[in-house]
Amino acid sequence: MTEAESPNPAGAPLPSGTPTQGLKIGDYVIIDTLGHGSMATVYLARDVTGHEVALKVFQEGPGVSPTMLERFKREAEASKKLRRHPNIMKVYATGQDGAYHYIVMEPIRNSRTLEYLMESQPLSMNELLEIGIKIARALHYAHSRNIFHRDVKPSNIMVDEFGEPLLTDFGVAELVDWPSMTISGALTGTPLYMSPEQARMDTAGPQSDIYSLGVVLYEAITGMLPYSTQHSAPIKQVLEAVKTETPRRLRHYRRDISPDLEAVILKAIEKNTGRRYHDAESFASDLERARTGRRVSARLATTLERLVDLARRYDQFFVAAAVMLAMASGGAFYLRSQLLNARYANLLSKAHLRNLILRGSNFSPGTAASDQPTVWNEIRMARRDMAASKWVQAREGFAAAIALARSAGDARTASLAALELARCEIMLGRSDAALGTYHDIIVNSDASPVTADMAQLEAVQLALLHGAQKEAVSYLNLKPLPIEGPLRDALRCLSGEISAQAFADRLPYMPERLRNDFHLALAIRYRMEGNESASATHLRRVLQFSAPSSEWPAPFARALLEQRRN
C-alpha cells in the first residue's frame, strides 16, 4: 500500500496496544524504546541484515486525527529529500505496515536536545556558535530544496555524542511541491520561537526559519528570550510581543558578548524582513566571522531607524498626535513638550538604574569582564562542591546563583539553581527546607517544565520517605502531571496508581539519563511496601547508572544505603 492510499481501509483491524519488544514492523524488529514524542515513539530496531536503526513509529487508532497523520507523512517526505546533509537527521527509508507508519533513521547514541543542554549545563560560546553555524547551513540546504522548517526551536535540535548538531522534526514543514497543510488563519510553529510574520499568520518562508534560529541562539547565549514575556506567558501575550516588541540588547545580560555578535543575532531577529538576513548562508557566514573576530556585515540599527520603524508601526497614533499638536496653542505646546521631556528623563534614569543593577549583579568593581562571577559561574563552582560532597559550600553557591539570577530577572535559571539547592538541603538533613524549596519551584510559572517536573518528583519522594503521605499528595496536586512519558509513570508509581512491578518492567525502555532517578523512585516505592531487599537493590542500581558517581541522585542513594546498614 502506498502512502497516498487510505491508511486504514474500511474494516481493516487496527493493532491493539503499542509496539513492544520483538514486534516486527516492515523489515525491522523492535529491540528497545529510545524515546517518546508528541505524535510518535522512537524505537531501537534491527533490520534484516542485523544492523541497528532508529525506528520512528506513528500508530493509527482512536483519537488520531488526519492532521497528525499528515504531519508524520510530511516529516517523512521532507526528511527523505534532505537525507544527505550531515546536520539533518539522516533517514534511510520510510514505509507503512498496516496501521503503523514508520521512518527508519540513523540511531543516535547518547544524544541530547539543545533544550536539555540549555537546562542542564551551560555550553561555551564557541560551542553555541558552532551549533548555530551548522544549523543555519542545514536550513539553507533545506531552503534550496524548497522546504521551510517553520518550527525551529531548542527541542528540535539534537546534539549527538560527538557534539554534532542535527536538525529534526519537519512535521510542520512547508514543502513547496506539496499541498499546503496550513489552514487559513491558523498558527504554525511554536509561539515563543516563531517569526512576526508567523505570529500574524502571514506566509512563512526562509526568513522565518532564520528568525527562529536567531531566537534560539539569543536564548542559548543569554539564558533569556528577547522579549519581556517568557515561557510561562499566555499565548496571546507572547504573540503580541513577537509582533511588536523590540528585542532587548544581548549585552544587557552578558557583557562578554562582542558588539559584532550582538549585531548578527539582532539582525537575524529583525521584525522588518527587509533588514533581516535574506538567506541562512549569510547568517551562518556572519556567525562564523563573529566567532573568529572578523568584520561582519550586520550592524546595529541607528536610533533614527528605530524611530522610523516605530512611526510605521504606529502610524495612526502618530498622525492623531500630530493633529492634536497642531491644534494646541503655543503655551500648551510648550507645557506638553516640558512634560514629555520630564517623562523621557525619568524613563532614561530608570533605564540607567536598571543597567547599573544588572552590572552590579554580574561583576564587582575592578573585575575584568571575562572574570565576571556570572550566574553560571556560580552554578559551576557549586556543582564542583557538590561533587566533592562539600554540601555547605555548595548550598551557599547555589543561593548566590539564585540571587544573581533574580536580580537579572532570570527566574528560569534561578529555578534551576533552586533545584540543586534543595538537593544540598537534603544531604544536610534539612528536609523541611528542601521541601519548601521544591514547593517554590513547582508553583513558579517561570520555571522550565523540565525543572518543575523534577522538583515535583523529588518532593513526592522526599515526603514519602518521611512517611508524610498527605504532604506527598499535596505536591502531586500542585501542578498537573506531565502529559506523557516516563516522569508521569514515575509519579503514578509513587502515588500507587500503577504497581512497582509494572513500572520496573518499563525501566529498560526509558531514557538512560533518567534511569537513576527512576531506580530511586522504585526504591522508595518498595520501601513503602516494606520490601527492604528490593529497595536496596534499586538503590544500588542508582549508583550503577550514575556517571560520574557524584551525579544526583547517587549521593542520596548512597546515604540511604548507609542508613539501612546502620
Short description:
The chain has helices spanning 66-81, 114-120, 125-144, 196-199, 206-222, 235-244, 259-268, 280-292, 303-313, 315-327, 330-362, 375-387, 391-407, 411-427, 431-443, 449-465, 469-476, 486-495, 500-506, 512-528, 532-545, 554-565, and strands at 24-25, 28-36, 41-46, 52-59, 91-97, 100-105, 112-113, 147-148, 157-159, 165-167, 174-175. The chain is an alpha+beta fold and 566 residues long. Helix 5 (206-222) packs across helix 7 (259-268) and helix 12 (375-387) packs antiparallel against helix 13.
Written description of the protein model:
- There is one protein chain.
- The protein is an alpha+beta fold and 566 residues long.
- It folds into 4 domains: 24-105, 2-Layer Sandwich (Phosphorylase Kinase, domain 1), CATH 3.30.200; 112-305, Transferase(Phosphotransferase), domain 1, CATH 1.10.510; 373-479, Tetratricopeptide repeat domain (Serine Threonine Protein Phosphatase 5, Tetratricopeptide repeat, Alpha Horseshoe); 481-566.
- It has helices at 66-81, 114-120, 125-144, 196-199, 206-222, 235-244, 259-268, 280-292, 303-313, 315-327, 330-362, 375-387, 391-407, 411-427, 431-443, 449-465, 469-476, 486-495, 500-506, 512-528, 532-545, 554-565, and strands at residues 24-25, 28-36, 41-46, 52-59, 91-97, 100-105, 112-113, 147-148, 157-159, 165-167, 174-175.
- The protein has a 6-stranded antiparallel β-sheet with strand order 1-2-3-4-6-5, with helices on one face. A 3-stranded antiparallel β-sheet has the order 7-9-10. The chain has a two-stranded antiparallel sheet with strand order 8-11.
- Strand 1 and strand 2 form a beta hairpin.
- Helix 5 (206-222) packs across helix 7 and helix 16 packs parallel to helix 18.
